[in-house]
């Protein structure tokens, strides 16, 4: 059984990653942006989606109204918090609202603007990206009511900060992502065994609860409800549920959150018929086609390309090789469906305006999600659904866990 890190270790890692993010990634995002100040405003229990990227683990929610200001100066980016005193927060941010019992909070923020005279103030408002739309109507009203028009008129929506601050991985996160993937896949490997899967007895719902329970047992969160479905010879529908029978092709979808990092994975298993000792050759061949399409997509995930360009180039290459494929991959970072370039959608196999126009960057993590159709399971077009958690760095794409080229045999 795989072991996970203690809570103390996880907190230490998350704080190290936060320090790296604030010192490396935030300045990089500010350099790409035209903002003099990035303003982050969160209310308790209604936090901006970028909250988890900017605060230490011992500060799990906003305190009443928590404001951060990232200020571009000639010496670099200065980080202030305009919030009630907190020693955990003050290890990462300078406290600006010192006289908090006497001075109103908005007056302190106004004073900060007067000191630094920003020409442009970026706020998290967006109609295109959920993660960049964190300024609530209530918080915006507080800013408009509490600040001079001199400053509110300089506020504008800038998607760069929320996307890049959450999409780009720190050195420690890049180093630890294989470990996070190992923990996630270990649950699937434990599930796809004859001890757990009993043909004629075990149901797809049983296996869904197995994934949930094992994640909870390990002290982890699953960020979406795990799913399990079946492709069965003689049944036209590609994803059915119910009691598992010999000859079924099992397909799961599962992802965890661990140390503030996400996975998103789909793996296949075959339930043997009486007398079978290996996977039917047609399924082996179908998975090989799927693996080839995975590699095609990875070959086209080049930094500087947009998500739409990766999508179009990958499907064009698949068509040239006679592969019948669908592509719907997405960034996987602090959210499972994370900020960054969209590469196709299940519901739209075409170029996606705006969200598909974001460019691919190095030091990012992804869910390589796709399917192909190939002859198997008694029909001409059997769906082979897969999803791998992958990482892109300066050397290219890396699969984070072995086994993508195998269908687990349950005898």
TrEMBL record:
Q: Which SUPFAM superfamilies match?
A: Creatinase/aminopeptidase (SSF55920)
Query: GO molecular function terms here?
Result: aminopeptidase activity
Q: Which residues form the Peptidase M24 domain?
A: 175-375
Q: Which UniProt keywords apply?
A: Aminopeptidase, Hydrolase, Protease
Q: Is the keyword Protease assigned to this protein?
A: yes
- Pfam families reported in the protein's UniProt record: Peptidase_M24
Question: What Gene3D superfamilies does the record point to?
Answer: Creatinase/methionine aminopeptidase superfamily
Q: Could you identify this protein by its name? A: Aminopeptidase P family protein
